Amino acid sequence: MGRNVAGLKNERIYQLLNNSDLTIQPIERAETLPSAYYTDPDYLEIERVAIFSRQWQLACHESQIPNPGDSICRTIGNNPVIIIRTNEMEIKAFYNVCKHRGGPMSVKKGTTSVLQCQYHGWTYLMDGSLRGVPQFDRVELFDKKDFGLRPVKTSTWEGLVFITLNENPDPLPNVMKGINERIAPIRISDMQYHTTTVDVIECNWKVYVDNYLEGYHIPIVHPELATLLDYRNYVTETDDFYSLQYSPFSSNTADNPYNVEDGRAYYYFIYPNIMLNILPGRLQTNIIEPAGHDKCRVIFDFFYSDRQQAIARGTTESDLKASADIQQEDIDICEAVQIGLRSDAYDKGRFSVKRELGVWHFQKLVKQSISQYFDIR
Ligand code: FES
Ligand SMILES: [Fe+2]
To answer: What is the model's pTM?
Structure first.
């Protein structure tokens, strides 16, 4: 073991890992993750170091920060991150933490290449170096060079910008391998940003992810959606770091709010908390940020390959409406499940081999990340 987790004593880490069975069983025999993983705040601390600090995280699409000085803020584990478009049109990311007393940054008003702390106004250049330190004369043994912003690694795939706190991550193209070929001729890089919606949901982040990863609940939780999908032909496929759910729409699509003429829709889950919902001409990305052990923030970004046309046709509006309706049904069930997971009557369940392959694959990766980080064999 021998890895530290901020805020947890070693004995506690030992106890947490010992109490949970991290062995991986085939889906036919596997049990679901123990409920403590969803209800004990200490497991979230384990996940912050073993999962969130190690994996690629979706920051945004390039079309969300098109111009020099544009920026966007995200959180990875306990770490706020700012992602910026520079004057050279590069994309850079830093821990969004001022080296003075920890304040947050934003691009300085009237500039495109200076970050300014929103607390006492220290300024930093786009290479992270500290430039302006107002009213700091008479401070001894202070060298600005020691107080630069800490950079965060970025990588771009098909216009999607990813960030990671891992110094030595799996190369992003390996993680995303095969997706482009599968969705062709749809190109994610063609998409233009339209709008964002955010929900704060009273459940552990993994409850939301588990729920996304199976169509098993569709007939019960989304009865209207169920009439549009060809549920018998719903497929789940898994790769190393992602899974794909694919459901053809049923032939009777007169009332289909998705207007999917050729019936193709791809639902990709990229481990650990990213979803790409891809339809011809349309992309919706979801980011699931933990906001405590029993709360998560779900960020939906909507994109269109021809945004103006999508607005003119009313597609954007009907997408937002359909998404909000389905999301509310998912929120209600996820919040109810979080309550169930806290109950004395529940610890672990089992998987449907036919319908819950994606959930099993996700939970397998969670276990693997923890075993690898703490070197448990
Ligand atoms: S915390 Fe940033 S200037 Fe004080
Ligand atoms: Fe759902």
So the answer is: 0.93
